[in-house]
Design brief:
Elements lengths: L1 E4 L4 E4 L2 E3 L2 H7 L10 H22 L7 H6 L3 H14 L7 E11 L4 E12 L5 E9 L6 H13 L8 E6 L8 E5 L3 H19 L1
Parallel strand pairs: 6-7
Antiparallel strand pairs: 1-2, 2-3, 4-5, 5-6, 7-8
Helix pairs in contact: 2-4, 5-6
Amino acid sequence: MIEFNEENHEYKVDGKVKPSVTTILKETGVWPDFWGNDEDREFYMQRGRMVHLAIHHIVKAKQGVVIHDYVLRQDERIQGYLNSFLNWYNDPNWKVNAEHSEKKVYNKPNDYCGTIDMIANVNFREERQEKAIIDFKCGVPACEYAYQLAGYEMCVEPVAFGKRLRLGVYLNKEGKPPRVCPYLDETDFQVFRACRYVYSKQSARR
C-alpha cells in the first residue's frame, strides 16, 4: 500500500520510504532550473499544488456541479490555468475520457513512487482513442519532463513500457488553449532508468 505525506512530499510503501520520480530526476541533475529566489520557488510550488488539486476536483466532480462557478471560487492567480485546462478537457477533437486523476503509483522492480496527474483515453493519431499518461504544467515545456512521464509509465507498465501515449499539457495563465506536447522518444525510458541507477549509487554513499 502506498502512503503519501503531502507536507513532506514523502512516499512510503509498506512503511518504508521510497524516492519519487521527481526526486530521482532532481537529485541526478536532470530537471529544469527555476529562476528566482526561494520565495519565488515557493510560489511556483504552491501555485502548482493549487492548480493540480482544483483539476482533480473538476475531474472528479459529480454530475450537476457547475464547473464555471467552481473556477470562479478559486484563487484568481490560478483561474486562467483552470480555464486553459477546461479548453483542452472539453475539446471535442481530443475527446478526453479520464480514468484516473492524481493516481499514486509504485514501480516495484526499480523501487520508486510517483503521482500521475491523469490517465485518460484521448484522440491523438488518426482520430482514434489512445490510452495516455498526462502531466499538467503551469510553466514552459522542457525536455526533462519527457523523462518524468517515462518514469510514470514504467510504474503503470513495469515490463511492457513504451506502449502508451505520454502527453505534457502546458496550461496557459490567460485561459487560452494549452500547448500539448507528445513525448514519443523511446530513449526517454533509458534516460530515466540511468537516473534511477545513479540515484541508487548516490544514496548508497550517503
